[in-house]
Amino acid sequence: MAEQADQGSGQGSKARPASRRVAQWMRDYVPLPGIPDEYIAEGGTPRAVWTRFFEAFATLTPGEIERRFGTADRHLREAGVSYRAPGETADRTWPLSHLPLLIDEAEWRQLTEGIVQRAQLLEMVLADLYGEGRLIADGAIPAAAIAGSPEFLRQVSGIKPPGGRYLSLYAADVGRGPDGRWWVLSDRTQAPSGAGYALENRLVLSRAFANLYKSMNVERVAPFFEAFRDALRGGADRDEPRIGLLTPGQFSETYFEHATLARYLGFLLVEGDDLAVSGDRVHIRTVAGLKRLDVLLRRVDSNFLDPLELDAASQLGVPGLIDVLRRGGVVVANMPGSGVMEARALLGFLPSLCRRLLAEDLKMPHIATWWCGQASAREEVLSRLDEFAIEGAYRRDVPGFPGHSPVLAGELPATDRERLRAAIGERGIDFVGQELVRLSTMPVWDQGRIAPRPFVLRVFAAATAQGWTIMPGGFCRIAEQADARAISMGDGARAADVWVISDKVVPATTLLPAVDNVRIRRIAGWVPSRAADNLFWLGRYLERAEATLRLIRALAASPRDPVKGSTTVPQTVERIQRLLLAWGATSQTARTQPARVVAEALQNEERFGSALSLVRSAQRTATSLRERLSPDAWQVIIEMAERLAQEVEDDDGVIRAAELSLQELASFAGLAQENMNRAAGWRFLEMGRRVERAINTVRFARQFAYEEASSEDLDVLLTLVDCQITYRSRYLVGPLLAPVRDLVVLDPYNPRSVAFQVSALNDHIANLPALKENGLIERPQRLAVAAQAMLTTAEAAGLHTQTLFGLEQDLLNLADAVGQHYFPHGPHASRPEKLTGLA
After folding, report:
1. DSSP assignment of 191-212, as one string?
2. pLDDT for 504-522, tens place per residue?
3. Which portions of this protein are annotated as coiled-coil regions (predicted)?
4. How far apart are CA 449 and CA 457, in angstroms?
5. 3 state SS of 285
6. What distance in Å separates the CA atoms of residue 80 and residue 93, rounded to the nearest whole number?
7. Consecutive H or E run containing 389
8. Could you tell me if 240 and 340 lie in one domain?
9. Average pLDDT in the 571-577 region?
10. DSSP secondary-structure letter at 85?
11. Whole-model pTM?
């Protein structure tokens, strides 16, 4: 007994510091009056799941907690997890809260029952609206409530959705209502976003707090994504369907999420320009021609999907897509027109619709809503206007008022309140009045203490063969303002992981299939033309940046007269400056000041040819390739851009910045060489690098290996192409014209020579698919073979400046030929010669 008492005493001594730490964190934690809170339950006592979490969390020392927070933040930066606020052009780093939202298993079960019922109800309503139309004919839904919505697409009426579902993915924003129960705040049926960010939140936090995550028995989200992926595959009409995720492109606010989902689920990330319609099928443009696409998971709003039948100004969609849907040629998830169910005008009708269609009451309530398109509801809202939050009936914004948040009539100036009253009276169909509610709160970490903050939880449901499957977790957004009534990531909100806590041990799961079910594959499929285009230009931008940096370093390192500040070899320096000017790296006015030339060429972002501008261009291009680049490769580009943007004070600083950036470029080339799969994507990246290096090397040779070149000129050329050591190992004399020309242009064994680049280009082009099946050599290969023949048979003595200029033009034509042949430009985009025997 004494031994047991000693052991208990030891455990108590360990627990006491943790308990004191929790008490210190919670000292100022006071839920807002009348607002439900996740940590403190209705009776004023902490919920058990949070008590368990904080007791385990408090066993970490303050230093360990900060270190793990730093690990999470560093992962977000290094992985480039980002989003873009509306109206902004620059990405923001993803703002992840360091504490998760916790929900116990029993409560989660009740919540999911309400979500499943709601998803089933909305699916049935959509099927009727675009099918028989009984609900409107019988007056269950006023016709004006549907006809007034821009998301109701008459072009889709009568189309039975291929795959059998209007909604493949549904989401609901929920929070605790005044009674402490979960309430639905809004429905997401158009193209629900956030699942990819929820996945990224889970990856970051589960790694930062691995032991805590495991000990808390957190339900895994991988089975949900697996079920969703299998459901999309099952909707197609062949065993090995090709699935694409349609994104608006890299300027979308949530492009990172699109890339994350595509990579995680194994889908092709495509834009509208990547797709073409032929007959009753949609095809993806690849470097091997058109390939059939079976399923399209869209992240583009319905109205932009088909410029032929919907918004004619859209550049995001696929002409003819709606007609393909009529013919059953492609599964689109979610079906176009499904966004009509997001209209707040319909909220007031859902309880009666649920009783009519499902013969049961709604299991999860939503905010009391009055659609002002009905006379009685409009009169009710106008009579008590100051007691309502006014929202748009069909859109997030309120007509006539700025922003995307609810308008609180009671807080408006008298003139605006009367203007709102007049607008509702004149066109009530566009407005709804909603009960005034404030969002419930959850604990967040705030400078070493815990504080309550309003939050919204988005829960996801996927339609599968077994019914609706709910993600055990979700996408949580947290407001910084204590009295927030709406939360947008663009307003400075934070995101949080969502942990559903099980009562038993949760087995580790993965999205990877069982070993015995794996079908061996070595090639993932042909790369889409747009991705190949971006890879090609990523290589070119980085190679241009390297050539510019080498010129900058040579110019900054040139000796100068300490009194006059002029260089001792003005002719050579003049040639370097001339190249930088021709490349758009510097201005004409700066040429009289070498220090200004190198500063502009290094980091003047307004000069399109500066090193910083070129790296920024590479960064923008790489953003479109997030699903194809490793985190290390992405990080190299980010760090290089950040380094070049830092201010430098003198020539030594310029040289140092240039050398470090050149090292980073070498790192990227090494990562691409060693880590990228040797499929078509890698080849196009390499082709971009090789053709740009060949062009730049010929330009260097024209400038510094001309007929009357001095030894200084030739020495600069050897430095620019990194051949000083090679030259000295071969020749005991100083730089001479013929040997330098041979080494730089003709030597097939020199990895920096033009001949080496052209030989590599020939190898890559020869391994790409032929797009015309007539047995004739195609133009890119014809130009590459001709260039290699010329370089193989030429002699250094015959490489005059005019000859080099002709070679430069041939290389430029070769680069253009690759683009015209393989990338989506003009008449070459559809490549109708490949429409036979589509795979």
Report:
1. S---HHHHHHHHHHHHHHTHHH
2. 888 776 554 554 555 655 5
3. none
4. 23
5. strand
6. 7
7. strand 388-392
8. yes
9. 88
10. -
11. 0.86
